[in-house]
Write a structure and sequence with these properties.
The protein is mainly β. The chain has three domains: 2-131, 3-Layer(aba) Sandwich (Rossmann fold); 143-223, Elongation Factor Tu (Ef-tu), domain 3 (Beta Barrel), CATH 2.40.30.10; 229-312, Beta Barrel (Elongation Factor Tu (Ef-tu), domain 3). Helices cover 14% and strands 47% of the residues. 38% of the residues are buried. The mean pLDDT is 95.
């Protein structure tokens, strides 16, 4: 199985858990144990860069939250996890925070389902393998968020990313969204090993034909041709954090995070039906998405910057 785990609030623990790999606004630590692979995503540029935290959460299925002290940044992380409905996780106390006090503070929050463990690598692996199962993505359309790319002599253009759904095979023909450009997969690598197929959850390197580094940008999507939408307007069924004091009104500006795409957005319309908010946004530039995809709503000037979440209608 492939386990992608967000490691929050501790930039050093990753070195104990696995071998350091790719580093950008987040650092990935990789480990292979038999048939299982672990990728720990640490958003080391957070809290200075909110995108660092969001990227780590968007690319992972479970979470390790290290509790060192109760501060506004811990609060922001907890709000984000709750808005995204993240329930698969581990909590490690590594400071002078009273466990009972913390548990009372997060009552009713999604992370109250997290498992409290000791700060020991073997316990981390054991709990993840036991409680957080993943599928291979059979029957799903392939989708990958591009987070890095480069040229390799004798290989050509290589794209790195996590398979968010489905599977990818050597010789597959894919579309590079939001463009119309079609590419062919020449070869695949997972944990530096050549493979013919990469399953859902794999951190994969794809050697591609049909596009070069000048055609690529972080946040682009590789997927089956015609399977995704590209538009400058989106409608969300949204919810906001109870700690967000601003009222969403037409004309207000937000930052919308769709996968690893970040779009300045103007709120055009707010409707509410039986307590459910439906928001229409005008994006500064076209975004790639699929119906039912989850996004985050960010208000950079707010005390808790990640203020809401929505499902694309």
């Amino acid at each position: 199985m492939n386990f992608n785990v967000a490691l929050l609030n501790d930039s050093e623990f990753g070195k104990e858990l696995a071998k350091k790999g790719t580093a950008s606004d987040f650092t990935i630590y990789n480990l292979k144990q038999g048939e299982d692979t672990f990728c720990f995503f640490n958003p080391h540029q957070y809290p200075d860069k909110i995108q660092s935290l969001i990227n780590a959460l968007m690319l992972t299925d479970s979470t390790i939250l290290v509790i060192k002290q109760l501060d506004k940044y811990l609060g922001e992380m907890i709000v984000a996890l709750d808005l995204m409905g993240k329930e698969n996780g581990l909590i490690i106390f590594d400071g002078f925070v009273e466990k009972d006090k913390f548990v009372a503070l997060v009552a009713g929050n999604s992370i109250e389902k997290f498992i409290i463990i000791n700060k020991k690598p073997h316990e981390v692996y054991e709990k993840i393998q036991k409680y957080f199962t993943t599928s291979k993505g059979e029957g799903e359309d392939f989708k990958l968020n591009v987070d890095a790319f480069f040229d390799v002599k004798s290989v050509g253009t290589v794209v790195l990313g996590v398979v968010k759904q489905g599977q990818v095979n050597v010789h597959d023909e894919l579309q590079l969204y939001p463009t119309d450009k079609k590419i062919t997969v020449r070869s695949l690598q997972v944990h530096d090993e050549d493979v013919k197929t990469a399953d859902k959850g794999s951190r994969v390197g794809l050697a591609i034909k049909g596009a070069g580094v000048d055609d690529l940008d972080r946040g682009m999507i590789l997927a089956k041709p015609g399977s995704l939408q590209v538009a400058s307007e989106i409608t969300l069924e949204a919810k906001f954090s109870k700690y967000y004091t601003e009222k969403p009104e037409a004309g207000k500006g937000y930052l919308i995070a769709i996968g690893m795409q970040y779009k300045q957005a103007k709120l055009l319309e707010v409707k509410e039906d039986e307590g459910v908010k439906v928001l229409k946004f005008q994006l500064q530039s076209p975004a790639v998405f699929s119906k039912g995809e989850q996004v985050l709503i960010v208000d950079i000037g707010a005390k808790t910057r990640i203020c809401g979440a929505g499902i694309i209608q």
